[in-house]
Amino acid sequence: MADKPSRALVIYGDGFAPLLNQSHAGLHSLASMGACGFLALRASAPAPPSASGGQPSREIRELSQLLDAYDSLDALVRPLAMFMGLRAALFTAGSSVGSFARKLGFRLLEIDELVKKEALPVESSMASELLSLLGLSGGKVSEKSDVDLVVLHIRAGQELRALKDKVAINAGVDWLDGLVSTLLRAAQPGSEVAARLHFSVVLTFGDVAEDEGKNPSALISPTRNDSDLSLLRPCQSYCMKGGKRLDNIRHHHPMLVAQWQEGVTRRDSAEEFSFEEFQERGGNLAILADRFLHELAFKLWKAPKYGA
Question: Strands 136-137 and 140-141, how do they pair?
Fold first, then answer.
């Protein structure tokens, strides 16, 4: 545990997980430095209806699980209120995601606010602004910050526009890898920033058909649910919430998560950002996606350790 509260940056990449390859050195570097694992999702059966009465999209369903709002998709429910004054901001170019985040109590910011100067590489400008919001600027740590948590939401292949359309960004996996590399350079081991920044990258598989769960390379559970052996296997912790078993867990294609903060996160033996590597060498295995925000709030000194 750090002697001061962390400040958290989360990059949430929707649909990026299947696009990674050996050339993405920034993402692989993060995985090799930090703690890696899976965030288990619910199956694609319709979620509880939102306050408007409609069914939320796949993107909103998955994001709501990451922010522990899935079981009560209602405008009056604000999960951030559980975390002792946690101040959180979310950047997105998606209007539906932005509206949803605002209802949950996030300060909504536009991607345009991250690109301040045409002269700088886009990745450098965005990294600088993201860290500045957290009071981490110029390699120094300010005692005050605008927020405690920043979430950057990006869809794979999305076109981002900034500076009144003077700058167009194709948010592909190569661009994401460059942004992660830039952020890691700003948080060199041994620096003040590395000691206070809790950096997470969460990547999803995007649209997944239920029959894709038959692919053994994407299964969290090594035992098939329809086999006799499944009767002997204890219920996994990622299938539980609030002491109750969840029957709608998707045992395949989870979110992939890598987290790093110098002196705080464990370093496992994973060397690459991939499903296979996390399954074989990741230290965190699988937890329910709903637990992610709680674990993060603990690092920010905004919540007790989950289960304590």
Answer: antiparallel
2: in domain: no
Residues 6+ apart with CB under 8 A from 165: none
The CA radius of gyration of the chain, in Å to the nearest whole number, is 19
Residue 126 token pair: 């965005």
The amino acid at 43: A
Residue 133 lies in a domain: yes
CA distances (Å), origin 263, targets 66, 139, 160: 25, 17, 35
| Parent domain of 163 | 7-299
203 within domain boundaries: yes
pTM (2 decimals)? 0.90
Enter the DSSP assignment of 243.
T
153-168 residues labelled b (16+ CB within 10 A) or e (exposed): bbbbebebebeeeebe
Angstrom distances, CA of residue 97 to CA of 109, 129, 131, 140, 148: 11, 21, 22, 32, 20
Are residues 143 and 136 in contact, defined by beta-carbon separation less than 8 angstroms?
no
Q: How many domains does the chain have?
A: 1
pLDDT in tens, 34-83: 999 999 999 875 555 555 556 789 999 999 999 999 987 765 567 788 89
CATH number for 158? 3.40.720.10
| Non-local CB neighbours of 198 within 8 Å, separated by 6+ positions | 6, 7, 8, 9, 259, 260, 261, 264, 265, 296, 299, 300
CB-facing half-sphere around the CA of 42: CA atoms within 13 A: 26
Residue 306 lies in a domain: no
> Tokens 């041994």 — which residue?
190
Query: What are the pLDDT digits (tens) for 167-176?
Result: 788 899 999 9
Alpha helices in the chain (DSSP H): 25-33, 58-66, 95-103, 122-133, 173-186, 192-196, 275-281, 292-299
* Helical segments of 139-266, H only: 173-186, 192-196
